[in-house]
Amino acid sequence: MSVTRILVVGLLLSGLSGGWPAPATSQLAALSAQEAPFDLSGFRDDADVALARWAFDRFDQAELELPALSLSFHDERAACEGHVGYYRSGAPASIDICGFNWDRFLVTPKKTILHELAHAWAHQTLDTETRNRFLDLRGLDTWQDKSVSWEKQGIEHAAEVIAWGLMDEDLFLTSIGETDAVLLAEAFVLLTGRESLR
Ligand SMILES: [Zn+2]
Question: Distance from the CA of 159 to the center of ligand 1, in angstroms?
Fold first, then answer.
């Protein structure tokens, strides 16, 4: 199994002292092999780099700041607990992307990386009040509870809404119930305080 690992520090670099230069204008700079203090040698191929670059650019464009995180690409799904993507909180947060070995720019891998990055963003950013207002808007009872099904957890609705709002093509969510575009846009604004990119 080919495993890729990259430490993505992005905008947070500007808050660190010593050693590493801050990216010039965006988190994308962190993925530049020329400027990088990061080990890019483990990327499976240029398509992994391109997908990550695209996803960070979408967060940049929406002015949503991501935390430091570790991003890994895998041929198989084992690292993702059988899923196509997996987020683990921590410092840095850990995101695994699994099983996309051909065209990385199909809608599913694009949505997957946005969804997992959205978890990292939400974990860093959302306070209890915002989470509760989002739960009310979505008609949900719980933010995160492993005993509750995926589609009834606010944390997953939030990641889906963020992925929807940052996508650059049509994305029809089938995962979280009410997906009227006006309501999704309202939910995006509630979460982020910004308009979606759609
Ligand atoms: Zn998720």
Answer: 6
